[in-house]
Amino acid sequence: MKKIPFLLSIFILISSCGACQNKNNDNKKTTNANTYAKTITVSELKEALYIYASDDFEGRKTGEPGQKKAIEFIKKHYQNNNIPSPISDGDYFQEIPESYFEGKASGDSENVLAYIKGSEKPDEIVIISAHLDHIGVSGNGEINNGADDDGSGTVAILEMAEAFKIAADAGDGPKRSILFLHVTGEEMGLFGSRYYADVDPVFPLKNTVANLNIDMIGRVDAKHEGKENYLYLIGSDKLSTELHDISEAVNKAYVNLNLDYTYNDDNDPNRFYYRSDHYNFAKNNIPVIFYFNGVHADYHKPTDTPDKIHYEFLETRTRLIFHTAWELANREERIKLD
């Protein structure tokens, strides 16, 4: 074996120790991700959703009193957990004027924003989104509670935000910033996400690494009755193969759901890729994943109530999205577009 000069050997030893330390830190990060994911629980998801999808919120139609109750509920959650707004201290609402909704809303409305600032790359942003609105009250006076659509996505984000905050308080916060984005006006035509992306991106779109969008993850569709361990993913490979590969690897490592790509087909007659808020990020070349359980008999009906949510599935699916966000936020390099 060739001898190494003494000073060079010392340098190699120090460098090797540094590499080992980095590897140990990465392993610690991975281990801790599981710890924080376990703070996302059935009981807390259920407690929040029974409030958020109650009759008190009057179906959360954009611009109406029930929607105002919804944004106050979301804001209070962030305040109670000391999760700040990126807009300004105490101001969680991105105001959208009534005129922006093209005559479809009966008043001004708001997106709700909160975030965890990244510890190493704070200017790079991972956005987790869901729409906070629903379709309101039917003509016969029945309230459309929207427990699955999209109460399930809303409370999932609240639980993930809490998990990331616990991590940050433990000195284990994400390297990149995480934006928790609750958008309004989705049911009327993706207005809230369009306003954020096209009019007032609080963080520059060029700095946005990915958007993980959640719209209905608390139920089971007819196709999967009896084999409920599934989730539809849409868009994961359309702009970044790397994002798709990361998503698959995270699922296998932590959750092992059956990831169904039926609606990811370019020829999908339902055109779900264009029908939820991720699309306003995808059209700006931001890689996206849309998480979805498929439609069911209670879709857009007064019968979409919190007692019909499968909370164990909601917990598992939320943990999958948390792990994916954790991985995207903590990678050395941001994911690349194809």
UniProtKB/TrEMBL annotation:
Protein name: Peptidase M28
GO biological process: proteolysis
Organism for this UniProt entry: Pseudalgibacter alginicilyticus
Keyword NAD on entry: no
Gene Ontology molecular function, alphabetical: metalloexopeptidase activity
Signal peptide range in chain numbering: 1-19
Record flagged with keyword Signal: yes
UniProt KW keywords: Signal
Domain Peptidase M28 intervals: 111-323
